Amino acid sequence: MKPSRLCTSNHFGYLSYAKRLVNRHSENSKLSSLTNVTTLTYSTIEGNNVDSDKETILNFKRIRCSGIRSSELKYAAVFKACASFLALEEGRQIQVDCLKHGLDSDVYVRNTMIHFYGSCKKIIDARKLFDEMRYTSVVSWNTIISAYFRVSWFCESVEYFMKMRDVGIEPDETTFMVVLSVCAELGNLTFGKYVHAQMIEKGLGLTCRLGTALVNMYGKCGALNMASLVFDKMSDHNAWTWNAMIQGLAQHGLARHAIALFEKMKDASIQPNHVTFLAVICACSHAGYVEDGYRFFEEMKNVYGIKPRLTHYGAMVDVLGRAGHLTEAYNFIVNMPIEPDPTVWRTLLSACSVHGASDFDGVGEKVQKKLLELEPRWSGNLVMVANKYAEVCKWEDAAQMRKSMRFKKLKKIAGESCIEVNGLTFRFLSGFDSQAPCVDIYLLLNGLCLNMKINNP
User: Fold this and answer.
1) How far is CA 198 from CA 12, 104, 159, 180, 328, in A?
2) Distance spanning both ends of the chain, measured CA to CA
3) Residues 311, 347: contact at Cβ < 8 Å?
4) What is the DSSP letter of 358?
């Protein structure tokens, strides 16, 4: 049997047939060639899943035990399999085996190793492997930039993108997609525009993937006119493109526009997914549309058959809490079919702080008790509870919570905000003035506060 026959089986997704061919010809002198292809089968077959990836690793172990020499393609396939289900220990062992055979310097193998460590969020290992490479391709740079993005080291992603340009490596579509996502998370509109200009200069077309990344970046950075312009210019939209535009509108308080766009999405025969419904429910939350929030929540379950996730339940709690329906929100949490996490309870406690005057059923007391049971050592919870006591003049209880924090040696996590000015991002931490212009900023803020008091006595 020729290996090409097995490759054909793999190409059309006949995994079980490919395995039978190998088993039938296990005594063939070309077993090495066949098993190499079979190992790749488990990682490249369409519809890849965790079970097939685990089988890839088991098959690799069987090949190694049989004494068959390894190849670069084989190692690359196994590293991809390890990355898919975060098999860190197995991947480390395979890396040692790869090193012993002197194949770790191959660019393709090294790229998959970096991807593996990045997927496992071992960014220091991924960076070490990248920095040791003598030759790097655009895939190498994309992999390390994506690895930084995966662990939310956004500034490092930007840094390596600039290094990539400095060494003369031309970015491709994947590079721009990742970097635009970084800009979206940083909220850095100036750099996002720079990346967009680079795409235009390079002559890249407005594909669905690039267009979606641009809409997402402009939407999250608050440039909704630009996001809408890119969205309208795109000839091909998928569900994620619509999601990006709806999320941008919802995030910046344009609830009615977000809901109207959601209806257009359905009219265009685009199937909404769980992210779509999360976006429209969040839009209802910001605008106080309780009935619409319930309607979309039920539509998601009953019309589209999408099982609500914890984030959807949390969004509904936010809808009810922001509208002041504290008892209803509490009952909603209690009747949830899945166990609510501390974030859900924290959402309701925040609403109780805002609408404390209408909390006639003592919801706030119940919520803070539950929250302290779940996370007794999380400083944020203790601060919220102490502040809530202070708001209703329960000074002794508030002091007791502060004392408890000191006894447990817990420190409050400083609040942080940032602003972009002329392409530079300035970070501000609560209680810490790291920037020299802060004096001028405070003078301006004091002036604004005085103006507000005069106009709204």
Assistant:
1) 38, 34, 16, 11, 51
2) 89
3) no
4) G
Where the chain has pLDDT below 50, the residues are: 1-13, 27, 29-47
**Residue 424, strand partner residues:** 421
H or E element: which one contains 266? helix 255-267
Dihedral (CA of 9, 18, 46, 72) sign: negative
Residue 343: CB atoms within 10 A of its CB come to 13
Query: For residue 357, what pLDDT is reported?
Result: 63
- Cα–Cα distance between 125 and 116 in angstroms, integer? 10
Q: And the tokens for 106?
A: 């191959």
Buried residues in 405-429 as b, exposed as e (16+ CB within 10 A): beeeebeeeeeeeeeeeeeeeeebe
What is the reported pLDDT for 81? 87
Type of residue at 457 = P
Here the tokens at position 41 are 């089968």
Both tokens assigned to 370: 């539950």
Q: For residues 185 and 192, give the distance between their C-alpha atoms in angstroms, rounded to a whole number.
A: 11
User: What's phi and psi for 415, nearest 5 deg?
Assistant: -70, 145
Q: List Cβ neighbours of 418 (8 Å cut-off, separation of 6 or more).
A: 187, 425, 426, 427, 428
Instruction: Please write the tens of the pLDDT for every residue from 91-134.
Output: 888 888 888 888 888 898 999 999 999 999 999 999 999 999 99
Q: What is the 3-state secondary structure (H, E, C) of 285-310?
A: HHHCCHHHHHHHHHHHHHCCCCCCCH
Q: How many CB atoms lie under 10 A from the CB of residue 450?
A: 10
Q: What is the DSSP string of 423-449?
A: TEEEEEETTB--STTHHHHHHHHHHHH
DSSP state of 156: H
**Cα–Cα distance between 404 and 393 in angstroms, integer?**
18
Which SS3 state, helix, strand or coil, does residue 356 take? helix
Helix or strand or coil: residue 199?
helix
Distance CA 329, CA 326 (A): 5
Angle between helix axes 363-374 and 342-354 (nearest 10 degrees) is 150
Distance CA 164, CA 114 (A): 16
User: CB 5: neighbour CB atoms within 10 A?
Assistant: 14
Over its C-alpha atoms, the chain yields an Rg (Å, rounded) of 27
Element (H or E) spanning 283, and its range? helix 274-287
- Please, which residues bridge with residue 427 across strands? 418
Give the separation between CA 67 and CA 70, rounded to whole angstroms. Answer: 9
Paired strand residues for 418? 427
Which helix or strand (DSSP H or E) is residue 417 part of?
Answer: strand 416-421
- Residue 274 near residue 312, CB atoms below 8 Å: yes
